[in-house]
Write a structure and sequence with these properties.
The structure holds two protein chains of two kinds.
Chain A: E1 4-7, E2 10-13, E3 19-25, E4 31-37, E5 43-51, E6 54-57, E7 64-66, E8 76-78, E9 87-94, E10 103-104, E11 108-112
Parallel strand pairs in A: 2-11
Antiparallel strand pairs in A: 1-3, 3-8, 4-5, 4-9, 5-6, 7-8, 9-10, 9-11
Chain B: E1 3-6, E2 11-14, E3 19-21, E4 23-26, E5 32-38, E6 44-50, E7 56-59, E8 62-65, E9 75-77, E10 86-93, H1 95-98, E11 103-104, E12 108-113
Classes of the chains: A mainly beta, B mainly beta.
Amino acid sequence: NAGVTQTPKFRILKIGQSMTLQCTQDMNHNYMYWYRQDPGMGLKLIYYSVGAGITDKGEVPNGYNVSRSTTEDFPLRLELAAPSQTSVYFCASRDSHSNQPQHFGDGTRLSIL
Amino acid sequence: GDSVTQMEGPVTLSEEAFLTINCTYTATGYPSLFWYVQYPGEGLQLLLKATKADDKGSNKGFEATYRKETTSFHLEKGSVQVSDSAVYFCALSDPPNTGNQFYFGTGTSLTVIP
């Protein structure tokens, strides 16, 4: 039961570098989400998608981009990394029925120095 | 708009103590309510859910009852263990009003000491 898989688990970037955080799910869920969690804080929604080819901004989209070319994959792109983007990033997915829970990956711990 | 307000932490309890973590919500419609648990270094895991008023969700000895009259979904456990040490998040989903998003509380950190 793979569920939601995120790679890499850890990464250190230098200021100004770019990278893509990968997220894939094998549950055939239409809805997928990216959150960031700063130390000791709750979750903030970055972007979400309700299906292939459809993405929408969440609460904190600046500095990030996403794409959804397939149902399974929802990569998050950081362009020009900044120290303020140091965080733990979680990907989640859920079935489109209204009362279904979100399923989370184990997260990517990203430090920008 | 919809929102979730969760009890401030951190909470420290002795093993076998009774646990209550308060969660209240504001919703325009009829939301589904969830409790998630996050163990150190891991992602969030669904602990339990309730989809309509008076429903009781339960799992691993934890319980929460969807109280529409008090707009609450408090998490309880009769006897906590050291292994219950984690951060607990209350969340709601109310598609007619929140779209496809979930609204999460800020999390309550629980530490259980032997």
